[in-house]
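User: Here's a protein and a ligand (magnesium ion). What would the complex look like?
Assistant: Let me lay out the input and then the predicted complex.
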Amino acid sequence: MMAETRNADEIFKEFKEHSIAEFFKKNRQMLGYSGMVRSLVTVVHEYVTNSLDACEEAGILPNVEVTVTEIGENKYKVKVIDNGPGVPKKFVGKALAPVLAGTKFHRYVPQRGQEGIGAAGGTMFSQITTGKPIVVKSSTGKGTTYSCNIAIDTMKNIPIVTNLVELKEDFKGLSVEGEFADVKYENSDHGVYEYLKRTALSNPHCEIKFIDPTGKEHVFIRAVTEMPEKSKPTQPHPLGLAINDLLEFAHASQSRKISSFFVETFARTTSNKVNEMKEIATSIDFEKNPKEMTWADAEEIIKAIRAIKWIAPDATSIIPIGEERIKIALKNILNPEFMHVIERKPRVFRGGIPFVIEAAVAYGGKSGYETAEGSSAAILRFANRVPLLFDAGNCAITEAVKSVEWKRYGIDMDNQPVSIFINMSSVHVPYSGVGKEAISKEDEIIEEIKLSVMEAARGVQSFIRGKQHASFEAGRYKTTMRYAKQLAKDLAELTGENQNKLEQDIEKLVTKHYPHLKKGEEAEEKDIEIVAEAEEEN
Ligand SMILES: Nc1ncnc2c1ncn2[C@@H]1O[C@H](COP(=O)(O)OP(=O)(O)OP(=O)(O)O)[C@@H](O)[C@H]1O
Ligand SMILES: [Mg+2]
């Protein structure tokens, strides 16, 4: 039987254009809107990172207030208020509704937001799950307060702004509020509370207030009053370029020749370097306009770039959190008995992209997770100061941490209150998925993280060993003393001697073997009592 045939004209009658917003509707999981718990965290994450970015850009110490209210089954209202620069009325629709619109494109700096998707994603998610617009209030200075509702025309990818009213109210910053369904609040290490706690950990210059669905208010107070250093945009290093990157730069360039384009656009690229490239990429005309660069040209030039020696990229544009700040933040939020923080020197992955790893191991206090049996270790992952809560299995940090032999440092990951903190800072964090929840498992990154956490672990090793030794000794002392009573009684019966005296003699003898348990170290003794009691119960 002959199959039915259709020619191109017939087939292309059905040709339709999709809007980006339509694409979101069908592929929302790509932006982190998958799973009810995660979707709620994503909403909070997008608004909070925008607030932090905006405050940082304006040089304002951020105060962010997040309220999550339950309004129905798997239905919540989320409100985020910041004290940032605000959004001018003229731009508010465009900033918060259309996908791929924002002020942060084409910046080669380590910022949180980049794509211009985040806020629009929230608007769209509200729209497709509850049919409601986002309610916005903003002001950029005295007398400019306004409020409005924002929705998206998902076919045209344009904002629909309604109810725009000027308000007399004094306010500075941005307040966004939306209603979302298909979401769930959970008090777990994947939930909103944990997300905000970790955001406070990696951003000690922020004050974060959180009102949870039970109405309880949690405040993560500002631990440092200095703004983080602002990173300067840098030129990309040639070694970090892929073919399409090079083409994009070339086609956007105002330079007249490919040779000058290289010197003007990229880091560490002198005319001597361009001459070296010319010697290898012999078929390329470096005198022609960069706008005329073809894919084949770019391919050949990239080959040449990789064949010559380069000075390592300048890593000064990377601003890590900083050792002191991490210490203050950990103390503020986890209040550990002991911690060790490491800030490593910049390293490079994929031959040209610099990154910095910071790592800390904290023991005791509120470190780790509480479990039915006691506690276990928590791995706190961050990329450019943003906490990563999901997709742990696909993350270079998890892989590196798991590959360390923790027992060597006296750390038992399953039974101790330990938090392992890792932050990767880079102008280009290679995420392993579009949801940006895990760092891709590049060998150089894994290796560097492993070295960092091992160094941090070495720092707490002697403290943990000391602690283990003390509790072990105390346990032995206590057990021996328990037998002493019985032994004195038995001996008294056998020998007819005074039981009390015998008991005292035995006690003296035992105490002689544990001289560090003598009086004067009462604080430690108290500690030990608790450990020993717990043992007794078992
Ligand atoms: N709280 C805020 N204060 C001031 N401006 C804001 C705020 N939130 C958003 N904006 C503006 O709206 C723009 C769009 O935000 P959106 O979250 O969609 O994109 P982005 O942050 O640039 O990138 P990403 O997709 O990575 O989040 C921002 O670039 C910024 O100009
Ligand atoms: Mg954003």
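Summary: The CA atoms of residues 258 and 286 lie 5 Å apart.
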